Amino acid sequence: MRLVVYGTLRRGGALSYALPRGGKFETIKLSGLKLYVLGGCPGAKLGSTKDKAIVDIWEFNCSKRTEAMLLRKLDIMEGVHYGLYKRSYINTPRGGALVYTICEDMTGYPQIKDWKEWQKKSEREKMKILMKAGGIKVGIYTRHIK
What we know:
The chain is of the alpha+beta class. It has one domain (2-144): Gamma-glutamyl cyclotransferase-like (Hypothetical upf0131 protein ytfp). Helix content is 21%, strand content 33%. The protein has helices spanning 64-77, 115-120, 123-132, and strands at residues 2-5, 24-31, 33-37, 42-46, 52-59, 85-92, 95-102, 111-112. Strands 2-5-1-7-6 form a 5-stranded mixed beta sheet, with no helix packed on it. Strands 4-3-8 form a 3-stranded antiparallel beta sheet, with no helix packed on it. Mean pLDDT is 89; it is low at 139-146.
């Protein structure tokens, strides 16, 4: 199984514990993916070859049963059932890979290249970027929470 992660699931990210141990990964600049700041996590959309993002490509050698369990867990974490994210596929230098992409329209959200670099910015820098992009967006998650 090959998986592209770009935010909290990246190595050392807040949710990276959810990925199985023993997989191998490579951090690359990947064409065809646009990253956006949603607040405490990023969202991605498939883009053109001009769009590039820093991602981790994980490869896991696991049984079909383990793969199915991992995908169920990731679907829950990514809010697939609520229509927040969906499973998409993207070409990588290692071959096709699964990537979770945001379902919402990202117009007006700041686009970034690297989530880890975004996190290193000061709160002041982040606020300037967010305000320049049109203000702080809210509601992408709250509309699904009841």
